[in-house]
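[Automated response] Your request has been received and processed.

Submitted sequence:
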Amino acid sequence: MKYATTVIIGAGQAGLAMSRQLSNRSIDHVLIERGEVANSWRAERWDSLRLLTPNWQSRLPDYSYTGDDPDGYMTAAEVTTYLQDYSDFCGAPVETFTEVLSVRPDNYGYRVATTAGAWRCANVVMAAGACRLPIIPRGAEGLPTSIRKVTPLEYRRPDQLPHGGVLIVGASATGVQLAREIQLSDRPVTLAVGEHLRAPRTYRGRNIEWWSDAAGLLDERYDEVDDIDRARRTPSPQIIGSDHGALVDLNALTELGVEVVGRFAGVYDGRARFSGGLPNLCALADLKMNRMLEAIDEFASETWLDGQVPAPDRPAPTRIPKEPRLELDLKAAGVRTVIWATGFRPDYSWLHVPAFDRRGRLRHDGGVVDAPGLYVMGLPFMRRRKSLQIDGVGVDACDLADHMEARLHRAAA
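Generated structure:
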């Protein structure tokens, strides 16, 4: 049996940021990682993936990007190197290639069973990430066995797919990026679009992330929004990390030849069916985008930036077919692959603590779980709108480390 005040599960950006904040407070801890540092970036990303945020925004506690391309976008391999370098810089106490088998309460606090032995600790920080298990929509079971089913965790490049049509379900950042890449590989793509968030890569001559950062839009806290559950379900914006400013909204994809259809509703007798609500979904996405751009314009006016940047240049409204397709005969259309770009959920199958609601969701208040000494990191809008970004985990970790430090002081007193 090994002992530590805190066990952190996961050594990605969230776990490493938490480790640094605990070290700054002299709280002893260990990180348990199922693979190597930044394992998901090493093994679960497609080849052409780049961060959606520019390099200058890759900020972690006491560490930031110092390369010669601040406005570029890191590849998955570069993110891996960046996080490994950060781990080395921090001297993070990581136990690699160690799988967590279970976490259970005991008289000391928690017992963490792993493939390399057990730990006892007062606190557990779950930083294994929100993207562990792909979400497969209802109706998927009707797909013919002859069609290949792929998730973004398995996809690497177009040439691993059979030649023929590809149905991509989901039009957030992942779905639209894969649609563009696969369409350009001469595999005709049909994109099933549900709720989505539209955003330009640049606006008024500057990166949209620059505006969001400068205007404080990404710093909005979880306790400042009316419906945090809905805010946490907001899809990632339709942008791409690209040095050449490529657009990946529905207008750009349609120009490339991608066929856009409504929300996936299931497969019956070899025919994929789609809802007729595509016009409403696109109108709502346009409305939300323009509200965001209006907030940016207001910020520019209030801070006297209006005279330093170009005039507002709003993207054109989303163009959709007059009569979007409602069903697709998969065999007749030559569809040989379906890609589920429909999101992910965390994996807490090893957590044996009564901290879940009736729907199986972890109960937490900004990362402080409804169980003494249990914390979670790296979830969407966990404490701030930027909680999923590399730039967001540091301030979240600072808040949780303060909470943990106060808890330990109370226990000692």
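Summary generated for your ticket: The chain has nine helices and 25 strands. The mean pLDDT is 95.
If you did not submit this request, please reply to this message.
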